[in-house]
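Hi W.,

Here's what went into the run:
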Amino acid sequence: NAGVTQTPKFQVLKTGQSMTLQCAQDMNHNSMYWYRQDPGMGLRLIYYSASEGTTDKGEVPNGYNVSRLNKREFSLRLESAAPSQTSVYFCASSDVFGTGLAYGYTFGSGTRLTVV
Amino acid sequence: QKEVEQNSGPLSVPEGAIASLNCTYSDRGSQSFFWYRQYSGKSPELIMFIYSNGDKEDGRFTAQLNKASQYVSLLIRDSQPSDSATYLCAVRGRDDKIIFGKGTRLHILP
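Here's what came out:
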């Protein structure tokens, strides 16, 4: 049982390059999320998908796009990478959304992205 | 702006003692509260969640919630060196979004 799988684990991009971070979960969760984590800033929500077919902006969406490909997969795309997007990116999923209760998130292992 | 506040630490606690981690939140309508542990270079791992006022115990961990005062705490009894990590407080509000605190670094002294 893999849980939440993110690829790649590490990536170095040049300014202006594009790339897609992949995320897949095998827990049949409805909701999926993309966070970035920077020193001193904590985890910040980029985009989320409450259910298959829906996506919404989080706290820091500028410079990113997402696609909920199916119930299992939620990808994050950087169209034109900037040094400010150097960060650790975490994908997460959860079982419950919209009921007022929560079972917490299961996180992937993260992608360490450096933009030079 | 909804906020979750934690002391960044580091909090140093002798091995075998009780570690006490605190968190305050701004959204009075928040409904669910979580504690995550994050080892350096790893992803956050859920260790406790609590919905109701009072205490919730799970092994060496106790989560405490006081909605009137808008604070959540985590107690770790019989602290072990393996408990050294960053602990993230997270709060789910009425809009179902989870906001994370910036974390408290805990160092257990052997």
